[in-house]
């Protein structure tokens, strides 16, 4: 695998992942293209109309599509559209795929083997199954983190995840005609992933509904149907679980823990915590300290 070594330098890496949220009115004046780069777009949340080569496609959480180098496209009617832009050169994968079995499938998807994309390929929006959706977004989040931290071995981690992502898409992503899974599941799944990462944020019922693109009434009904409990109750449980974890492992005060978990009112936090765990936060922590021999932090 001597050829692989030449690709593992930042100067010639030819690969980058960006994450951006679009939430305004776009139009033809916002057309853009990436000369010399393919753009693989993975929709994490929200929805929009994607216009590419005169073809309009509705896109939403769980979708993925490929834009060839230099081809202009834009979004319209974007509503909390959170997307990963996976940018890479043809050389990045063309030189690497020969080293791995199963490369023809990926080459065909990228149009590398014949030098051009198949007819109609540019409008090919595919969809992930829910399990694959979480796996793909987790791999993309790892890439973004590696690009930010630039730790030793980062390019190896990025390369590994990049090849996994493309292989999983080629194997499992459904074509648009086969997208038979209701979009509600993807919208709720995307919100849950966002809430787990931003559990302390100011999340009203209306804001959660807007994130999914549902009306408040429809959102409440869909969330309960899919998750099994009301959204506000679920978020409260998530915050209390995070608080309990912080009390076990952290040294912050009770008030600091409450605020870090989305409870600006420490008295309300104490009442809810006691209702959930049968003890006040301080008593909960004292019990842990006595069992482990640690010092008390009020």
UniProtKB/TrEMBL annotation:
PROSITE patterns, sorted: HTH_ARAC_FAMILY_2
Single GO term (MF): sequence-specific DNA binding
InterPro entries: AraC-bd, AraC_XylS_family_regulators, Homeodomain-like_sf, HTH-like, HTH_AraC, RmlC-like_jellyroll, Tscrpt_reg_AraC-type_HTH
Pfam families xref list: AraC_binding, HTH_18
Domain annotation HTH araC/xylS-type: ranges: 189-287
SMART domains in UniProt: HTH_ARAC
Transcription in keyword set: yes
Keyword annotations of the record: Cytoplasm, DNA-binding, Transcription, Transcription regulation
Protein name: AraC family transcriptional regulator
Organism of provenance: Victivallis vadensis
